[in-house]
Amino acid sequence: MAPSTFITLAELAVQRATWDAEGARVALVPTMGALHLGHLSLVRLARQMADRVVVSIFVNPTQFGPNEDFAKYPRTLVADLELLASLQVEAVFLPNAATMYPDGFQTFVHNQGMALTLDGQSRPGHFQGVLTVVMKLLNLVRPDVAIFGKKDYQQWRLIEKMVADLCLSYRIAAGETLREVDGLAMSSRNRFLGDQDRTHATAIYRGLTAAKAAYKSGERDAQKLTLACRKILEISQAVKIDYVELRSAATLAPLSGQVTEPCVLLVAAKLGTTRLIDNMEME
Ligand code: PAF
User: Fold this and answer.
1) How remote is the CA of residue 220 from the centroid of ligand 1, in Å?
2) Do 54 and 194 fall within a single domain?
3) N or C: fewer beta carbons within 10 Å in the chain?
């Protein structure tokens, strides 16, 4: 059965009140659409954790910089709704920009620590847009649990931090990254890659797995682990590295010397005009 779609806040509130009355547990999967198997795995996780699943689809303008790909971000609503119907999602929230950011909107969520590094450094203002829209989606849907992908590792950790710092009662859960057969992390932006860049993009996964193999064989030196990945990325001139960073998995604080805590290697790189991010937990 096709999911119910809600465009206005009033429609969503009526549905939410019905679920309240039923005592149903609700899971939210926030997305920007252009759904792929990675999103669907988050929906499946949501289904295991709740009685009702809401997917939001909103290409959030405030998380794109002025020279970023907001205008060309893929919008594939008909296909998205078909995919969600196949997973028996109960509701799809489809707000528009005027609903989320009405005239006079002036309040944003700003993280002053973790958001200033990595993607936050390369994309100033990005996480302020993400946290603001996620805060709004949480408050509108009031889910028992909201699910995010580990592919956007920094985003996931920032949302956890926002929930903790601001004493929100929502549970945040994370789903593992899904990969294509050659290891490329699934992303809505992969469709922008030309054939050659698509081939070169696999260097990201190969670099991450090389570092992980080194970690598994006992290497704990932060610089050597980072270098194991970087060396592979640097083989291909098509891969323009933004960052390769080993960070604390919990706080994303930089690490140096011998690492003793759980850590994650994060990569951002451009292939042509397409910016890709990926990461791997070292464990
Ligand atoms: O990960 C995304 O798709 C977006 O950043 C999110 C969480 C839906 C907020 O717009």
Assistant:
1) 33
2) no
3) N
